[in-house]
Amino acid sequence: MTSATRLVYLGPPGTFSEAALLTLAVAHEAELDPVPTVAVALDAVRQGDADAALVPFENSVEGSVSTTLDELAVGDLLQVIAEVVILVRFALLGRPGGGIDAVRTVSSHPHAQPQCRRWLAKNLPDAQWEPSFSNSEAARRVQAGEIDAALAGAFAAPRYDLSILADDVQDVDGAQTRFVLVGRPGPPPPPTGFDRTTMVLFERDDHPGALLEMLTEFAVRGVNLTRLESRPTGAGLGRYCFSVDCEGHIADARVGEALSALHRICAEVRFLGSYPRADRRVPTVRPTTSEDAFRSAADWLATLRGGHSHPGR
Protein backbone atom coordinates (compact mmCIF):
# COMPACT_ATOMS: atom_id res chain seq x y z
CA MET A 1 0.00 0.00 0.00
CA THR A 2 2.97 2.38 0.02
CA SER A 3 2.27 3.16 -3.65
CA ALA A 4 -1.37 4.10 -3.09
CA THR A 5 -2.18 7.60 -4.30
CA ARG A 6 -5.94 7.83 -3.79
CA LEU A 7 -7.96 6.49 -0.89
CA VAL A 8 -11.72 6.89 -0.66
CA TYR A 9 -13.90 6.71 2.42
CA LEU A 10 -17.53 7.08 3.44
CA GLY A 11 -17.98 10.85 3.56
CA PRO A 12 -18.44 13.72 3.57
CA PRO A 13 -15.54 14.94 5.72
CA GLY A 14 -16.14 14.65 9.44
CA THR A 15 -17.27 11.02 9.56
CA PHE A 16 -15.95 8.31 11.85
CA SER A 17 -14.72 6.68 8.63
CA GLU A 18 -12.43 9.64 8.01
CA ALA A 19 -11.25 9.55 11.63
CA ALA A 20 -10.48 5.84 11.30
CA LEU A 21 -8.64 6.31 8.00
CA LEU A 22 -6.41 9.00 9.48
CA THR A 23 -5.07 6.49 12.02
CA LEU A 24 -3.38 4.56 9.18
CA ALA A 25 0.10 5.63 8.13
CA VAL A 26 -0.75 5.16 4.44
CA ALA A 27 -3.41 7.88 4.72
CA HIS A 28 -0.77 10.53 5.33
CA GLU A 29 0.89 9.76 2.00
CA ALA A 30 -2.22 9.70 -0.18
CA GLU A 31 -5.04 11.82 -1.55
CA LEU A 32 -8.15 11.27 0.58
CA ASP A 33 -11.52 11.59 -1.14
CA PRO A 34 -14.95 11.24 0.50
CA VAL A 35 -17.71 9.42 -1.38
CA PRO A 36 -21.43 9.24 -0.57
CA THR A 37 -21.98 5.50 -0.02
CA VAL A 38 -20.19 2.23 0.73
CA ALA A 39 -21.14 0.92 -2.72
CA VAL A 40 -19.57 3.94 -4.45
CA ALA A 41 -16.41 3.53 -2.36
CA LEU A 42 -15.96 -0.14 -3.25
CA ASP A 43 -16.85 0.38 -6.91
CA ALA A 44 -14.17 3.09 -7.13
CA VAL A 45 -11.61 0.44 -6.17
CA ARG A 46 -13.04 -2.13 -8.57
CA GLN A 47 -12.93 0.34 -11.45
CA GLY A 48 -9.38 1.44 -10.68
CA ASP A 49 -10.41 4.97 -9.70
CA ALA A 50 -9.03 4.47 -6.19
CA ASP A 51 -6.26 2.37 -4.71
CA ALA A 52 -8.27 1.41 -1.63
CA ALA A 53 -11.46 2.25 0.28
CA LEU A 54 -12.03 2.55 4.02
CA VAL A 55 -15.57 1.42 4.93
CA PRO A 56 -17.40 0.53 8.16
CA PHE A 57 -17.68 -3.21 8.78
CA GLU A 58 -19.22 -3.83 12.20
CA ASN A 59 -20.19 -2.13 15.44
CA SER A 60 -20.05 -3.61 18.93
CA VAL A 61 -23.63 -2.48 19.62
CA GLU A 62 -25.46 -2.70 16.30
CA GLY A 63 -23.53 -5.56 14.70
CA SER A 64 -22.32 -5.73 11.13
CA VAL A 65 -22.93 -3.16 8.41
CA SER A 66 -25.04 -5.21 6.04
CA THR A 67 -24.32 -3.00 3.04
CA THR A 68 -20.59 -3.66 3.37
CA LEU A 69 -21.06 -7.42 3.80
CA ASP A 70 -23.34 -7.64 0.78
CA GLU A 71 -21.14 -5.49 -1.46
CA LEU A 72 -18.10 -7.64 -0.66
CA ALA A 73 -20.02 -10.87 -1.34
CA VAL A 74 -20.83 -9.98 -4.97
CA GLY A 75 -19.20 -8.29 -7.91
CA ASP A 76 -15.52 -8.27 -8.79
CA LEU A 77 -13.42 -9.68 -5.97
CA LEU A 78 -11.92 -7.27 -3.45
CA GLN A 79 -9.51 -7.91 -0.59
CA VAL A 80 -9.22 -6.55 2.94
CA ILE A 81 -5.75 -5.13 3.53
CA ALA A 82 -6.09 -3.78 7.06
CA GLU A 83 -8.60 -3.08 9.80
CA VAL A 84 -9.08 -0.19 12.21
CA VAL A 85 -11.14 -0.19 15.42
CA ILE A 86 -12.09 3.12 17.00
CA LEU A 87 -14.11 4.18 20.03
CA VAL A 88 -17.41 5.74 18.97
CA ARG A 89 -18.86 8.65 20.92
CA PHE A 90 -21.82 10.67 19.67
CA ALA A 91 -22.81 14.29 20.14
CA LEU A 92 -26.01 16.09 19.23
CA LEU A 93 -25.06 18.91 16.86
CA GLY A 94 -27.23 21.93 16.05
CA ARG A 95 -26.96 25.39 14.59
CA PRO A 96 -25.37 28.06 16.80
CA GLY A 97 -27.80 29.86 19.06
CA GLY A 98 -30.25 26.99 19.16
CA GLY A 99 -31.05 24.64 22.01
CA ILE A 100 -32.38 21.15 22.54
CA ASP A 101 -35.89 22.50 23.13
CA ALA A 102 -36.03 23.70 19.52
CA VAL A 103 -35.08 20.33 18.00
CA ARG A 104 -37.92 18.78 16.03
CA THR A 105 -35.93 16.65 13.54
CA VAL A 106 -32.77 14.59 14.09
CA SER A 107 -30.69 12.80 11.46
CA SER A 108 -27.79 10.34 11.34
CA HIS A 109 -26.56 7.24 9.57
CA PRO A 110 -29.01 4.37 10.25
CA HIS A 111 -26.38 2.65 12.43
CA ALA A 112 -26.01 5.67 14.70
CA GLN A 113 -29.61 6.23 15.75
CA PRO A 114 -30.05 2.85 17.51
CA GLN A 115 -26.87 3.52 19.51
CA CYS A 116 -28.52 6.63 20.98
CA ARG A 117 -32.08 5.30 21.11
CA ARG A 118 -32.60 5.56 24.88
CA TRP A 119 -31.06 9.03 25.11
CA LEU A 120 -33.30 10.25 22.30
CA ALA A 121 -36.39 8.72 23.89
CA LYS A 122 -35.62 10.45 27.18
CA ASN A 123 -34.47 13.85 25.93
CA LEU A 124 -36.18 14.24 22.54
CA PRO A 125 -39.24 11.98 22.71
CA ASP A 126 -41.20 13.93 20.08
CA ALA A 127 -38.37 14.55 17.61
CA GLN A 128 -38.65 12.91 14.21
CA TRP A 129 -35.63 10.91 13.05
CA GLU A 130 -34.54 11.08 9.40
CA PRO A 131 -31.82 8.82 7.95
CA SER A 132 -28.78 10.19 6.13
CA PHE A 133 -26.04 8.43 4.15
CA SER A 134 -23.54 9.31 6.90
CA ASN A 135 -23.38 11.21 10.18
CA SER A 136 -21.44 14.06 8.62
CA GLU A 137 -24.01 14.25 5.81
CA ALA A 138 -26.56 14.75 8.59
CA ALA A 139 -24.37 17.55 9.99
CA ARG A 140 -24.23 19.16 6.54
CA ARG A 141 -28.03 19.02 6.37
CA VAL A 142 -28.23 20.81 9.73
CA GLN A 143 -25.89 23.50 8.41
CA ALA A 144 -28.11 23.86 5.32
CA GLY A 145 -31.22 24.27 7.48
CA GLU A 146 -32.85 21.06 6.23
CA ILE A 147 -33.08 19.51 9.71
CA ASP A 148 -32.58 20.71 13.27
CA ALA A 149 -29.92 18.39 14.70
CA ALA A 150 -27.52 15.58 13.83
CA LEU A 151 -25.97 12.69 15.69
CA ALA A 152 -22.28 12.72 14.83
CA GLY A 153 -18.82 12.85 16.32
CA ALA A 154 -18.13 16.08 18.20
CA PHE A 155 -15.17 16.62 15.86
CA ALA A 156 -17.65 17.29 13.03
CA ALA A 157 -19.04 20.43 14.71
CA PRO A 158 -16.33 22.91 13.61
CA ARG A 159 -16.31 21.51 10.07
CA TYR A 160 -19.95 22.51 9.62
CA ASP A 161 -20.07 25.57 11.91
CA LEU A 162 -22.35 23.80 14.37
CA SER A 163 -22.68 23.82 18.13
CA ILE A 164 -22.60 20.81 20.42
CA LEU A 165 -26.06 20.76 21.99
CA ALA A 166 -25.24 17.65 24.05
CA ASP A 167 -22.16 15.46 24.25
CA ASP A 168 -21.78 11.73 24.93
CA VAL A 169 -25.37 10.90 23.97
CA GLN A 170 -24.61 7.25 23.18
CA ASP A 171 -26.47 4.68 25.28
CA VAL A 172 -23.42 2.42 25.76
CA ASP A 173 -20.05 3.80 26.75
CA GLY A 174 -17.08 2.07 25.15
CA ALA A 175 -18.89 1.17 21.91
CA GLN A 176 -16.48 0.45 19.07
CA THR A 177 -16.74 0.37 15.30
CA ARG A 178 -14.49 -1.74 13.11
CA PHE A 179 -13.50 -0.43 9.69
CA VAL A 180 -11.71 -2.28 6.90
CA LEU A 181 -9.35 -0.96 4.24
CA VAL A 182 -10.22 -2.74 0.99
CA GLY A 183 -8.13 -2.97 -2.18
CA ARG A 184 -7.94 -5.08 -5.30
CA PRO A 185 -6.85 -8.73 -4.99
CA GLY A 186 -3.19 -9.42 -4.44
CA PRO A 187 -0.79 -11.17 -2.09
CA PRO A 188 -1.97 -10.69 1.51
CA PRO A 189 0.28 -8.94 4.02
CA PRO A 190 2.76 -11.40 5.60
CA PRO A 191 1.68 -13.22 8.77
CA THR A 192 2.17 -11.34 12.03
CA GLY A 193 0.98 -13.91 14.55
CA PHE A 194 -2.10 -11.81 15.37
CA ASP A 195 -4.01 -12.05 12.09
CA ARG A 196 -7.60 -12.36 10.97
CA THR A 197 -8.97 -13.98 7.79
CA THR A 198 -12.28 -12.98 6.20
CA MET A 199 -14.26 -15.01 3.67
CA VAL A 200 -17.75 -15.64 2.30
CA LEU A 201 -18.99 -19.24 2.00
CA PHE A 202 -21.71 -20.24 -0.46
CA GLU A 203 -23.62 -23.51 0.04
CA ARG A 204 -23.41 -26.03 -2.76
CA ASP A 205 -26.99 -27.07 -2.01
CA ASP A 206 -29.46 -26.75 0.85
CA HIS A 207 -29.45 -29.94 2.92
CA PRO A 208 -29.55 -30.89 6.61
CA GLY A 209 -26.22 -30.23 8.26
CA ALA A 210 -24.81 -28.03 5.47
CA LEU A 211 -23.68 -25.31 7.87
CA LEU A 212 -22.38 -27.90 10.34
CA GLU A 213 -20.20 -29.38 7.59
CA MET A 214 -18.63 -25.98 7.00
CA LEU A 215 -18.07 -25.29 10.68
CA THR A 216 -16.54 -28.72 11.19
CA GLU A 217 -13.73 -27.87 8.79
CA PHE A 218 -12.72 -25.06 11.11
CA ALA A 219 -13.30 -26.95 14.35
CA VAL A 220 -11.23 -30.05 13.55
CA ARG A 221 -8.25 -27.84 12.67
CA GLY A 222 -8.52 -25.64 15.76
CA VAL A 223 -9.50 -22.50 13.87
CA ASN A 224 -11.49 -20.12 16.05
CA LEU A 225 -14.27 -18.07 14.42
CA THR A 226 -14.63 -14.47 15.56
CA ARG A 227 -17.74 -13.72 13.47
CA LEU A 228 -20.32 -15.80 11.57
CA GLU A 229 -23.35 -14.32 9.83
CA SER A 230 -25.82 -15.49 7.23
CA ARG A 231 -26.77 -13.14 4.40
CA PRO A 232 -29.38 -13.69 1.67
CA THR A 233 -27.89 -14.34 -1.75
CA GLY A 234 -30.81 -12.83 -3.64
CA ALA A 235 -31.46 -16.15 -5.38
CA GLY A 236 -34.70 -16.76 -3.46
CA LEU A 237 -36.03 -17.26 0.05
CA GLY A 238 -33.94 -19.67 2.07
CA ARG A 239 -30.79 -19.18 -0.03
CA TYR A 240 -27.97 -17.82 2.09
CA CYS A 241 -24.25 -17.30 2.09
CA PHE A 242 -22.16 -17.07 5.24
CA SER A 243 -19.81 -14.20 6.03
CA VAL A 244 -17.01 -15.45 8.26
CA ASP A 245 -14.05 -14.05 10.19
CA CYS A 246 -11.56 -16.45 11.75
CA GLU A 247 -8.35 -16.16 13.70
CA GLY A 248 -5.16 -16.78 11.79
CA HIS A 249 -3.60 -16.19 8.38
CA ILE A 250 -4.06 -18.10 5.14
CA ALA A 251 -0.35 -18.93 5.37
CA ASP A 252 -1.03 -20.83 8.62
CA ALA A 253 -1.41 -24.55 7.99
CA ARG A 254 -4.63 -24.83 10.00
CA VAL A 255 -6.29 -21.94 8.15
CA GLY A 256 -5.00 -22.96 4.72
CA GLU A 257 -6.20 -26.55 5.16
CA ALA A 258 -9.61 -25.36 6.33
CA LEU A 259 -10.00 -23.14 3.26
CA SER A 260 -8.89 -25.99 1.00
CA ALA A 261 -11.49 -28.32 2.53
CA LEU A 262 -14.21 -25.66 2.27
CA HIS A 263 -13.37 -25.16 -1.40
CA ARG A 264 -14.12 -28.84 -1.89
CA ILE A 265 -17.56 -28.79 -0.19
CA CYS A 266 -18.84 -25.28 -0.98
CA ALA A 267 -20.17 -23.91 -4.24
CA GLU A 268 -17.78 -20.98 -3.77
CA VAL A 269 -15.29 -19.78 -1.20
CA ARG A 270 -14.75 -16.05 -1.61
CA PHE A 271 -11.44 -15.25 0.08
CA LEU A 272 -11.51 -11.64 1.26
CA GLY A 273 -8.08 -11.45 2.81
CA SER A 274 -5.78 -12.17 5.73
CA TYR A 275 -4.56 -9.11 7.61
CA PRO A 276 -3.33 -7.99 11.05
CA ARG A 277 -5.94 -7.59 13.78
CA ALA A 278 -6.27 -4.08 15.14
CA ASP A 279 -6.23 -5.36 18.73
CA ARG A 280 -3.07 -7.42 18.06
CA ARG A 281 -4.64 -10.36 19.91
CA VAL A 282 -2.63 -13.56 19.50
CA PRO A 283 -4.86 -16.67 19.17
CA THR A 284 -4.56 -19.60 21.52
CA VAL A 285 -3.46 -22.61 19.49
CA ARG A 286 -3.66 -26.13 20.87
CA PRO A 287 -0.50 -28.28 20.50
CA THR A 288 -2.34 -30.65 18.16
CA THR A 289 -3.16 -27.84 15.70
CA SER A 290 0.13 -25.93 15.84
CA GLU A 291 2.35 -25.37 12.81
CA ASP A 292 4.76 -28.01 14.16
CA ALA A 293 1.94 -30.53 14.47
CA PHE A 294 0.80 -29.99 10.89
CA ARG A 295 4.38 -30.15 9.63
CA SER A 296 5.04 -33.39 11.50
CA ALA A 297 1.84 -34.93 10.15
CA ALA A 298 2.74 -33.92 6.59
CA ASP A 299 6.22 -35.43 6.96
CA TRP A 300 4.73 -38.65 8.34
CA LEU A 301 2.28 -38.92 5.43
CA ALA A 302 5.03 -38.25 2.89
CA THR A 303 7.03 -41.09 4.44
CA LEU A 304 4.10 -43.47 4.08
CA ARG A 305 3.48 -42.50 0.49
CA GLY A 306 7.15 -42.91 -0.29
CA GLY A 307 7.10 -46.49 0.95
CA HIS A 308 9.93 -45.95 3.42
CA SER A 309 10.06 -47.00 7.03
CA HIS A 310 8.94 -44.37 9.47
CA PRO A 311 9.23 -43.82 13.19
CA GLY A 312 5.54 -44.40 13.81
CA ARG A 313 4.61 -40.84 14.62
Structural class: alpha/beta
Mean of residue pLDDT?
93
CATH architecture of the largest domain: 2-Layer Sandwich
**Oligomeric description of these chains:** single chain
Shape: elongated
Percent of residues in helices comes to 10-25%
CATH domain class name of the largest domain: Alpha Beta
CATH superfamily caption of the largest domain: ACT domain
Evaluate the radius of gyration: 23 Å
**Total domains:** 3
Total helical elements? 8
CATH-assigned fold name of the largest domain: Alpha-Beta Plaits
Describe the fold and architecture.
The longest helix has 16 residues, at 291-306. The protein has three domains: 1-88 and 171-186, Periplasmic binding protein-like II (D-Maltodextrin-Binding Protein, domain 2, 3-Layer(aba) Sandwich), CATH 3.40.190.10; 91-167, D-Maltodextrin-Binding Protein, domain 2 (3-Layer(aba) Sandwich), CATH 3.40.190; 188-308, ACT domain (Alpha-Beta Plaits), CATH 3.30.70. The model has no long low-confidence stretch (mean pLDDT 93). It has helices at residues 16-21, 38-46, 66-73, 117-123, 135-143, 210-219, 253-265, 291-306, and strands at residues 6-10, 31-35, 52-59, 63-64, 79-87, 91-94, 105-108, 128-131, 149-152, 163-167, 176-183, 195-202, 225-232, 240-247, 268-276. α1 (16-21) links the parallel β1 (6-10) and β2 (31-35). The strands form three sheets. Strands 1, 2, 3, 4, 5 and 11 form a six-stranded mixed beta sheet that branches. It has eight helices and 15 strands. It is of the alpha/beta class. Helices cover 25% and strands 29% of the residues.
